[in-house]
Each structure stands twice: as structure tokens, then as C-alpha cells.
Write a structure and sequence with these properties.
This protein is α+β, with helices and mostly antiparallel strands. It folds into 2 domains: 1-82, Arc Repressor Mutant, subunit A (Orthogonal Bundle), CATH 1.10.10; 90-142, Dna Ligase, domain 1 (2-Layer Sandwich), CATH 3.30.1490. The protein is 41% helix and 16% strand. The protein contains 6 helices and 5 strands; from the N terminus they run H-H-H-H-E-E-E-E-H-E-H. It has a 3-stranded mixed β-sheet, with no helix packed on it. The protein binds zinc ion (ZN) (3 copies). One zinc ion binds at residues 83, 85, 89, 91, 102.
Length: 142
């Protein structure tokens, strides 16, 4: 599957700078979630002066636009993940090998309605991330 990263950035009203394009391409090529430090390391050959603050800023822009997903890890390190699935869905993440799997369907829309009814308010969005061990890692741990 190939992506038009320049179009994605355009849809967020972000200029398709070489650095933004490189960060997006790198994330899309990774199977699992990656840390800002990983990204800086891997792009150092291409951009000798790429600083961590710049990487953080780019990741923040992309996550705010919904193109990439922020992964909250219990180790308190921040990670990011690119998923090509644009449907509303959630992720199962392996805490050990960083693999990410799409969860089919949502299952939370009913709860949104209940919460709206209970609070008298209006639910606008929700976040769900399921943490665990993937099949391989669970077998290894057993
Ligand atoms: Zn795993
Ligand atoms: Zn996904
Ligand atoms: Zn959902």
C-alpha cells in the first residue's frame, strides 16, 4: 500500500517539508510504534541537524491532525504509530515487541449514548487503547 503523504499534509494545511515527509514515511514503514528518539536516530543520516524538539513538534502536529496515533505506554515513554485504516477503530498494542493490531469495530458507541443520557451532556469523541502481549510474546512469556 502506498500513501500520498504530501496530500495528507495538505489536508491538515501543513506544508510538505522534507522533514515532515520523512517522519511520516518512516512511521508508515514501521510495523509497530516508535519513540521520538528512534525517529531522530533513524533520520540523522538524512538530516544532520534534526533536533529532538523538531521531531516532537512534527509528531505533535501530525497527531493533532489525526494522521498518526499517540501511544500511551505504562513505561511513561511516548510513542507514535501510523495506521492506514481511516475508519473509526481502536488498537491492541503489545507492550513487549511494539506490535499494533487493529480492533474491528468500536463497541463504545453505545456507551457514548449512555454517558450522554446520564450526564445530560454530549459525547464528542473517545479514546481507547488496549495494552497486552501479542500472541508471540504471550507464548514466549508462558
Ligand atoms: Zn509482542
Ligand atoms: Zn489501526
Ligand atoms: Zn471507538
Amino acid at each position: 500500500m502506498s500513501y500520498r503523504f504530501d496530500e495528507m499534509l495538505k489536508s491538515l494545511k501543513l506544508k510538505a517539508t522534507p522533514k515532515r515527509l520523512a517522519v511520516l514515511a518512516l512511521l508508515a514503514a514501521e510495523e509497530g510504534y516508535v519513540s521520538p528518539e528512534d525517529i531522530r536516530c533513524k533520520l540523522q543520516g538524512e538530516f544532520a541537524r534534526l533536533g529532538l524538539p523538531t521531531v516532537y513538534r512534527i509528531l505533535d502536529e501530525l497527531a493533532a491532525g489525526g494522521i498518526i496515533t499517540k501511544i500511551i505506554h505504562p513505561n511513561r515513554q511516548l510513542y507514535y504509530y501510523f495506521c492506514g485504516n481511516t475508519e473509526h477503530h481502536h488498537h491492541f498494542i503489545c507492550l513487549s515487541c511494539r506490535r499494533v493490531e487493529d480492533l474491528d469495530g468500536c463497541g463504545l458507541h453505545g456507551m457514548d449514548g449512555e454517558i450522554a443520557a446520564k450526564t445530560g451532556g454530549k459525547v464528542l469523541s473517545h479514546i481507547l487503547q488496549v495494552n497486552g502481549l501479542c500472541r508471540d510474546c504471550a507464548e514466549e512469556a508462558a
